[in-house]
Amino acid sequence: MRKGLLGVMFLLAGLSLAQGVDYRQAAVASAALARLQAVAQTATGEEKFLTWAKEVKARAEKSYEAKAYFKAAREAQAALLLFRAAQGELQVRAKVPAAPRMGMGLHHGWGHGRWDRGAMGQPPRAVAPQARLAQGAQAAVDRAEKELAYYRAQDSLVKDLVAEAKNRLSKEPDRAFLLARAALALISAERGF
After folding, report:
1. pTM for the whole thing?
2. Number of other CB atoms surrounding residue 51 within 10 Å
């Protein structure tokens, strides 16, 4: 009898936890919104981007109130990227692989031949940071376009962000990168993963 009662209690406790709130997602969303609030208070820059950022910020706050924590975190990330694009921040970490450094082996500081040389035994060529940024921006815009088409995103703001990123790709790759990343975050928020 005791074992049965104890088993039922554990079952009920497990079910209540399974239906409860994912506290990690709530904490991530809360931290993202707090950071967004701090950035939004001092944000200046291009008016179109600020308007988009405020709109996405309002969406994130509504999603958080509705307990859609993943969506709120992604929307807060997109708004933060839009605020950065409005300010024209150049501190962007492009997702382009850097040239391998000389002497970096697998287990210690001395190279293993194939890791510290490029093709045909030549030392790797250094890529200028601006060129690497342009490559990263192009890759981000391409990915945003492909995800927009694949997931059939219905959000008109995502389409506007991708179009604006394509327009600014040649002149301002840093802003194009930030706009494409914001579009990707909104697509992720919409699809839920």
Report:
1. 0.73
2. 12
